[in-house]
Structure prediction request, 323 residues.
Amino acid sequence: MLIRYIEHLLQWLAVNLGLQLPEWLEQSLDSLDYHLLSWLLWLFMPLVMAFVLPIGIVIVMYASILFLHIYKARHRLADAYYSSGMWDWARMMIATFWEVQGNIWHGYEIEGLENIPSEGAAVLIYYHGAIPLDFYYIMAKVLIYKNRVMQLVVDKFLFGVPGFKILLKVFQATVGSVPECVKLLDEGHILAIAPGGVREALFGDEHYQLIWGKRCGFAKCALEAKVPIIPVFTKNCREAFRTPSWGRNNLLQLYEKTRLPLVPIYGGFPVKLKTFIGKPIPYDSTLTAPQLAIKTQNAIEELIHQHQRIPGNVFKALLDRIR
Prediction:
């Protein structure tokens, strides 16, 4: 059907605008097997859409960025106002949009929101999916229902992505050195960290194994600031977006050399997403940073064991929407 529409459009342009179609193009159109092309289009449409939907998420992100630029221009804000309350309304608008998007596309739910303190500092540790869409929803819920802006620790390459700087500033993201993170905790903020980072995002799979290595910087921050750690996991986050399994070792080597996330992502599937916020791990002065890191890892693995189907399955995750 689409092919025939294109042919009719070309013929209409030729007739109404006096355009002469090249002879080779006319012959090609006459020789097309439209039934075969329509069948091939139908056959490969799910594969095409699997790579198109992540682009849609990027478009939505840039729509949020455009909104912030318009808001800034409207109110004549200078950089000095980034830390003031002038951005509260804009943050709330974007958070509301992401909450609605999550409810519609993923039937998003959150369990254990009461474990996020209404005041005081804490370190929130979460599993990093291929695209951390679930964490956008978590931030939205915490802002809307707890009236708190979490300080998100991100990879520094994000600050180099065109247009992202204003979004990261408004939502108070940081690259997060240990002294900087301790300072934020001492000021009473909630600090959100995914210890697996880009490696876990791009090279994790449907088995949901944590890829933390020996990272324990978050534990050092929590111990130094004497604050609790809150484990978080979102069911089916690997089924919403995935990375290909082919060539994974070569892509990992490329990442280790360049530190650039040059791995294709596909998906955008409307699977059921549900976030589980575990009980806080209280400050314990008898623990070392590596011991606390292992304790936190065990807590998240327990959430995965309790709530996640292993291995993850996209079709079954879609069925979770109606269960």
Observations:
- The chain is about 55% helix and 10% strand.
